[in-house]
Amino acid sequence: MFDLGNSFIGSVERNPHALAIVDGEVRFTYAQWYARISSVVTAFDELGLVPGDHLITVLQNRWEAATIHWACQFAGIVITPINWRSKADEIDYCVENSEAKAIVFEHVSAEAARDSQEAKSRIRIALEDPRGDEVTFATMTERAARSAEPRVGAEAWSVMLYTSGTTAKPKGVPRRQRAERAAAIAHVAQNQYANGERTLGVMPLYHTMGVRSLLAMSLIGGAFICLPRFDVAKALQLIEAEKITNLYLVPTLYHDLIHNDVFARTDISSVRKLGFAGASMTDGLLKELDAAFKPELFVNHYGSSEIYTFTIDQKAPAKPGSAGRAGINQRIRVVKLNAVGPEDFAATNEEGEIIAHLGSDEAFEGYWRRPDANAKSLRQGWYFTGDTGYVDDDGDLFVTGRVDDMIITGGENVSPVEIESCLSLHPAVSEVAVVGLPHERWGKIVAAFIKRRSAVTDQELDQFCRTSGLANFKRPRQYVFVNDIPKSPVGKLLRRKLVAGEFEAEGQQGTAA
Questions:
Q1: 348: helix, strand or coil
Q2: Closest to 21 in 3D by CA, of 12, 505, 59
Q3: Fewer CB atoms inside 10 Å of the end CB: C or N, the chain?
Q4: What sequence ranges are listed for the domain AMP-binding enzyme C-terminal (predicted)?
Q5: Domain range holding 419?
Q6: 30-46 helix and 63-75 helix, angle to the nearest 10 degrees
Q7: d(CA 37, CA 43)
Q8: Closest C-alpha to 342, from 377, 301, 296
Q9: Quick check: is 461 in a domain?
Q10: pLDDT score for 348
């Protein structure tokens, strides 16, 4: 199987003059970009970096970040991207944990990177305004260099992503080049991408969705249009100006796009394919997007950093909530909650834990330096995802949340996602998040946090739930109206913050309720 370096060279040979990457005024064809990548590989050699070394990046989605990603594939260096918002102590942890030999940062992350004690003893590369012994990235890209040839094969490590770490220290997820390429090929096939597609490169390159978009475009001579950080007006401007053909985003970003005043004045006709992942999409948002874009394909992709694809539904609006069926490189099952092993099947329509086969071409092989996490999640050849769901009578998977998010009220298991989808259909509801709050009698009660689009009362929302067919025990017993729903930098809902009271009640500014 091709390593990623040979894969990229193949793309250059097929489409040397095709547009490969755009970032503001920077516009490189595949041939031009290959020359820049080759220069960086040579610079890595001069810095003493060798195959197997880890290189930390603390960067936004810029052409330099994408270039470093590809240069690492040629050089056999394990690119280890982390959130550009990381604090110094978080950088310390990742640098030490990954045993990184170098770190690359830019202006928005420079203060934290320079304050990191662990980073001080590593090679430090600055994109702007280097200090002291820091290396200037510009000098690495401008030198003349021979065309890079791959230093490693498909079995070499490609990338190590860190999980979000919402409940404990982040876990490193190392992935081999063959798994990365297999995932990219599956992404192309399952989203039916054609030659010369253009995608909005806004999902972070420290996130599996961002990496997949980058690699997938290279396979089809497509263009990765960089958007360093999500800005609705800028995203809409790029969609129109660059004739974006496909979008692959988390639901939160789609929500922000279509509810922006500029959306109605933007030419979005070039966008023919929509894909989403990272979280469930409410029924209401699905309908809005389908009506607004009228896409040829609307894909719900369910997966993870550990195993890129679990399931795919290529007609998401036709069956709201369905995550579809196993992807082309996967087998999945739903087993009973607290199952002993992968043979402890849940019945049809019974909620349980979703597990995925580790024999997948896209799968990782275990967490970095975390035998405890491996023992918990990797069992008898299957990955226990920690996600809950069920398979319906048609054989389609429905993802209902996380095992830890399950609300047990009066002895009944209640999934937040079902209630969120119900409430999202009310025209006055802009966003909704459902959690369980402690209650003396019931153990927990179902509470709905609502960001309003227009005036609505809790009594009106309760009546809406009653008439929707939602089971009585699932109806929220408490409604809280908020300014915003707390989310992670990649748009994932942070229920734990709502439970902890870390939110702004409607009308408040800057204080937690």
A1: coil
A2: 12
A3: N
A4: 418-492
A5: 408-499
A6: 60
A7: 10
A8: 377
A9: yes
A10: 98
Q: Model confidence at 149, in pLDDT bands (50, 70, 90)?
A: very high
Tell me how far apart the alpha carbons of residues 513 and 506 are, in angstroms, rounded to a whole number. Answer: 10
C-alpha distances out from residue 407 to 64, 416, 443, 468, Å: 44, 7, 9, 20
Residue type for position 499 = V
Q: Give residue-wise pLDDT tens across range 155-172.
A: 999 999 998 654 468 999
pLDDT band at 511; cut points 50, 70, 90: very low
Report whether 171 contacts 163 (CB < 8 A): yes
Residue 370 included in any domain: no
pTM for this prediction: 0.86
Cα angle 218-223-226, degrees, rounded to a multiple of 5: 110
**% residues pLDDT > 70 (the chain):** 98
Cα separation, 277 vs 351, in Å, equals 21
Angle at 453 between CA 449 and CA 454, to 5 degrees: 110
Contact 91, 236 (CB under 8 A): no
Q: What is the CATH number of the domain that holds 441?
A: 3.30.300.30
Phi, psi of 19, deg, nearest 5: -70, 130
Could you give the number of structural domains in the chain? 1
With respect to residue 474, please indicate whether it lies within any of the assigned structural domains.
Answer: yes
Closest CA to 7 of 143, 142, 179: 179
Rounded (10°) angle between helices 177-190 and 208-219: 80
Decide if 420 contacts 400 (C-beta within 8 A): no
Look at residue 457 and tell me if it is in a domain.
Answer: yes
Position 330, amino acid: Q
Per-residue pLDDT of 367-417, as tens digits, reads 999 999 999 999 999 999 999 999 999 999 999 888 888 888 877 778 888
Q: What is the pLDDT of residue 177?
A: 98
Residue 352's CB is within 10 A of a number of other CB atoms, namely: 23
> What distance in Å separates the CA atoms of residue 344 and residue 355, rounded to the nearest whole number?
11
Q: Which two tokens mark 108?
A: 């928005």
Measure the CA–CA gap between 315 and 323, rounded to whole angstroms: 10
| Of 214, 217, 185, 184, residue with least CA distance to 198 | 217
pLDDT grade, residue 508 (50/70/90)?
A: low
Q: How far is CA 390 from the centre of its chain?
A: 23
